[in-house]
Amino acid sequence: MCGVAGLFDIKGSRAYHAAVIRRMTAAIAHRGPDGEGIHLQPGLALGHRRLAVIDVRGGAQPMRTRDGALTVVFNGEIYNFRSLRGELEERGFCFETRSDTEVLLHGWRAWREHLFSKLQGQFALALWDDREQTLVLARDHFGKKPLHYQVRADGTLAFASEIKALLTIPDADRTLDREAVEDYFAYGYVPDPKTIYRSIRKLPAAHYLLARRDRPLDIRRYWSLLEKAPEPGRTSPEFVAERLGEAVRRRLVSDVPLGALLSGGLDSSAVVALMASGNESRVDTFSIGFGEREFDETSYACAVAERYRTRHRVRRVSADDISLVRRLPEIYDEPFGDISAIPTFTVCAEARQSVTVALSGDGGDEALAGYRRYAFHWMGDRARAYMAPALRGRLFGPLADLYPQGAWLPRVLRAKSTLRELSLDSASAYVRMSYALPEEVRSGLLNSDFRQALGGYDAGDVVRGPFNVDAPLDPLQRAQYADLMTYLPGDILTKVDRASMANSLELRSPMLDPEFVAMSFFLPPGAKLSRMHGGKMILKRAMKPYLPHDLLYRRKQGFTAPLARWLRGPLRSELLQLARSPGLRECGMIDTATIARMAAEHLGGLRDHSKGLWLAWVFDAFLAQSAQIA
Length: 630
Hints:
- A six-stranded antiparallel beta sheet has the order 2-3-1-9-8-10. The protein has a six-stranded antiparallel beta sheet with strand order 4-5-6-7-11-12, covered by helices on one side. A five-stranded parallel beta sheet has the order 15-14-13-16-17, sandwiched between helices.
- It is an alpha+beta fold.
- The protein is globular and about 70 Å long.
- Helix 7 (237-250) runs antiparallel to helix 22 (514-521), helix 19 crosses helix 20 (475-485) and helix 29 packs across helix 30 (610-629).
- It folds into three domains: 2-176 and 186-223, Glutamine Phosphoribosylpyrophosphate, subunit 1, domain 1; 224-559, 3-Layer(aba) Sandwich (Rossmann fold); 563-629, no CATH class.
- Helix content is 43%, strand content 15%.
- Strand 2 (35-41) and strand 3 form a beta hairpin.
């Protein structure tokens, strides 16, 4: 995997200094420790940092066609590059390397923008077409690889794999985007296409951008999951196992050591099982273990490793180890509140000691309805169908108001959220399920001046928009589609990209193969959800010959850390100081009195405010990091 950066003069052909583009690539050197390169010409500068995986000797970038008309910098891997190369050779194109990168150059010349929908892989690229005087930026189908861009006041289009590279440019605009701040406290991450900075944007997944001089940027979608027609009758567990096996095999192409992350959950275990079943050599697998049983899945991971005789390494850490907490702003460049970023970073660090590439199980929950909220939403939607909307609101709304907060109640009695969601329409109910912090909590945490400045902006529209997409989808598919468009690229894939690339490790996700996702997405609800056994039912049936029964049907655990305990333990002193933080006071957005109250209640054991306090802590750490690099 690699890092890309560049500058393009939209207004003219100024000369960019090599030192500027080298500073940009130096900021993302962790993405590519094996080499660097730049290309300069009037009005254009392209930079690249390389993590050599395929054609280690011949794949250096920037890469150009022999006639110099096309130049590309590329972050990613194209798994079907050999078949595409065969098609291009039949059309008369000559190749000079064994690299997948060269396919992009000849593919653009042959197919133009139709190239991107042909690619199977993960990619973020910048391609300069000298004849057309056009810069093309493109990002893969689900947004596995990041690409940020900014149009500067001087007419420069700047782009990079990570925001930190853009902030190295002199006079970088660091004005915060208030809507993005609201989104962050709503969801725990900043959803695409926004970033925390008003002037910087993310190119959305499955889109490409055309930049030409003296013309507006042209951003277009090249692929949609909803345009993929389902295969009739293909709903058997055996077919699912076959398709997933094909996706795994496509991701085994590598000229460097390759392994797999094995959490002990269903998705990573399925990937390892299929990987090992078709592999003559032993597979390297990696897990993180916690001393506390409620956070530890290593017994399941070890059972899979033993069954398939993998070379398994477990890194055991204390659940009170917060050594990585303060590095989060440096790694993510904007506030990122998913606490599982910490164990993800740790397992990536362990894997990188032995391999350069690792497969993971990311995407299985979104593709096959694995999150518990999907089952709750499906059942709630069926209940809503039996009652008129006005009656639901009059009945369940007041009940939700009266019902006590449930953090201190037995799980079976925590009905306040369920009652609230039943009072809402289907889209609004799912929006509420998607929130990290509900609106009533955010309204106290973010001060009145900030809320007034938002001018009525509703963060719920981030999820509501894709949920209400104009397509014949059932309620479960609408929830899945909303997550595939928002939570997956904004949280899950951001988390694994930054955590892996901070360790110079390439991760590959077979369950996000576009063909596998399309097949899974269009399965009927009954193939995915079971009242007794939760989500991903067809995958559980498909994996029966491969995995132990207790692993397949155990309660979903998740890959997380003891947040509430951290805030009452090793982060206690910092939590007590949070309300007095200069950053939070001076940013003009946070109600510090609310922070002080929440901290006192949490530390006193009266309420569990861990999520809201954590998001505030991360935001404060981000502000401090930003002040240091400004």
